[in-house]
Specification:
mainly alpha, Hypothetical Protein Ta1238, Chain: A, two-stranded antiparallel sheet, 3% strand, elongated
Length: 188
């Protein structure tokens, strides 16, 4: 259980932050960048939950927000710590099942989808793009420190889930906004 009685500690004033084992790393270290991008993705999901409103998908997104805290804890815990909170294969499988459940009723894609449509879909597309950045940051961090491969798979599946969920939100409102290649170029 987390209990914070003070929000500021002054321990990061010199440009370092603490990991779960008490070690300190630079705030611009690749793993800290990944943690920040995961935090930003989680915040974007909070906005998407508001946009989704009473749709049952809001409960799934709330579960994912909790999972993203697990991702952050996993990133903040050096691999040498045994018994630490880690992303597990079951979390990836749960996302895959959600992708299949949401994607099954959707019509097949005939074009790339523009990130827009309804407010809910646009919020989900923004969260998807931020999750993709978080995944790239985690891959970069994995070049410097050992990263849980299930964490990488989770982030990869999450962007897929957010994509199909955005499509689902748009389908309820009439369909996706499709890319028209070269459709806006002037005709000579």
């Amino acid at each position: 259980m987390v209990k914070l009685t003070r929000i500021y500690t002054r321990t990061g004033d010199a440009g370092t932050t603490g990991l779960v084992d008490g070690s300190r790393v630079a705030k611009d270290a690749a793993v800290v960048q990944a943690m920040g991008d995961v935090d930003e993705a989680n915040s974007a999901l909070g906005v998407a939950i508001v946009a989704v409103g009473d749709d049952p998908a809001a409960a799934t997104l709330l579960t994912i927000q909790n999972d993203l805290f697990d991702v952050g804890a996993d990133l903040a815990t050096p691999p040498s710590i045994e018994g630490a909170l880690r992303i597990v294969p079951e979390q990836v499988v749960r996302l895959e099942a959600a992708i299949d459940r949401v994607n099954d009723p959707l019509s097949p894609l005939t074009s790339f989808v523009l990130p827009g449509g309804t407010g809910a879909a646009a919020s989900l597309h923004l969260a998807r793009a931020i999750v993709r950045r978080a995944e790239r940051s985690a891959v970069t961090a994995a070049q410097a420190v050992a990263i849980n491969p299930h964490l990488l798979a989770y982030l990869n599946r999450l962007s897929d889930f957010l994509f199909v969920l955005a499509r689902s939100m748009n389908q309820k409102a009439g369909g996706d906004v499709l890319w028209v290649p070269g459709g806006q170029r002037p005709i000579p």
